[in-house]
Write a structure and sequence with these properties.
Blueprint (H helix, E strand, L loop, with lengths): L7 H11 L5 H16 L8 E7 L8 E4 L5 E5 L11 E4 L5 E6 L4 E4 L8 E4 L1 E4 L2 E3 L4 E7 L9 E2 L2 H7 L11 E5 L10 E5 L7 E8 L19 H15 L3 H25 L9 H4 L1 H10 L6
Parallel strand pairs: 11-12
Antiparallel strand pairs: 1-14, 2-3, 2-7, 3-6, 4-5, 4-8, 5-6, 9-13, 10-14, 12-13
Length: 301
């Protein structure tokens, strides 16, 4: 497979020579759409990125006045900041938790009316267990823990709710679940980790990047070296034939596009090392206990 390191402008120029009568804006959309289809076809190893999730320390300074049936809270000797907006807050020994909205260093708002007994000097904790992923994250691959050589187990949000509805355990995370997107524009994927981290640390993770489409004004931007430009050419030709209602030509060029993409996939498989499939620890940890019971058929002290 011949691969040439082309810029967007160079590839567009070649396409313009092949399809001279095509509107430039339409041509640019065809190029970008075929590029999108290629990079989203599989989780290419060349698009695998490493990053970290920075956790935050819980905040417990001072006390809080809470009132049954009110969503307003007032702090004493607190220094709340805008960075705490959207985090969770729990009061005293109450298992229920709320979403905290920052108003000032000593005032805040809960996501719903307070459900516990009124208390003018309640202890509290503000913490975070939901973290946004990078804006270019298309697929989260794995999250690692830092104290032992293992990955966090992935569970569904429903499973996490069944295991820990009130999220009361704290410590080093061992599980994660994909969470709803945040409210940014464009929205970012989020992930929830559990137990709730209450110290500053970093959770390394790998993800598959979703590359940005080419800006038509940045003609000097390069295509990735592993992208075969002939595959883009064939895809654009298929789109042009479709626009001109040359359906036989579209079928031929579409077949060439798929054939070229399959060649790229074959090369990807050759580069990708084999991986042994293993069950997550939460499905196998009972085996150790069963082995002990068989070895010692009596109650251990």
């Amino acid at each position: 497979m011949s691969v040439t390191n082309l810029t967007f402008g160079e590839l567009r120029f070649q396409c313009q020579k092949r399809h001279s009568g095509l509107d430039p804006d339409v041509l640019d959309s065809y190029i970008n759409e075929r590029y999108r289809r290629l990079v989203r076809r599989v989780p290419w190893q060349r698009l695998k990125i490493q990053s970290v999730i920075p956790t935050v320390a819980e905040y417990t300074a001072g006390t809080v006045a809470v009132t049954l049936g009110s969503d307003a809270i007032t702090g004493t000797d607190t220094v709340w900041t805008a960075e705490m907006d959207g985090r969770c807050i729990r009061f005293g020994s109450d298992a229920a938790y709320y979403e905290f909205s920052y108003a000032s260093a000593t005032t805040g708002v809960l996501d719903r009316d307070y459900e516990g007994a009124s208390d003018a000097l309640a202890s509290y904790s503000i913490w975070q267990n939901i973290f946004p992923l990078p804006a270019d994250c298309r697929q989260l691959v794995t999250i690692r823990v830092t104290d032992v050589a293992r990955d966090l187990d992935q569970v569904s949000a429903e499973e996490l709710d069944e295991m820990a509805a009130t999220r009361t355990s704290t410590g080093n995370p061992i599980l994660y679940a994909l969470h709803m997107d945040d409210g940014s524009a464009p929205p970012r994927q989020q992930v929830e980790v559990y137990p709730v981290p209450i110290e500053v640390t970093a959770l390394p993770f790998w993800y598959i990047q979703d590359p940005a489409m080419f800006d038509i004004s940045e003609t000097s931007s390069y295509f990735p070296t592993w992208i075969n430009p002939n595959v883009i050419y064939d895809g654009v030709a298929a789109d042009v034939c479709g626009k001109e209602k040359d359906y036989a030509g579209k079928k031929l060029y579409e077949a060439d596009f798929l054939r070229g993409m399959n060649e790229m996939l074959a090369a990807e498989c050759e580069r990708t090392p084999g991986a042994q499939i293993q069950m997550a620890e939460r499905f196998t940890r009972h085996r150790d206990r069963r082995g002990i019971a068989l070895t010692f058929p009596f109650e251990l002290p």
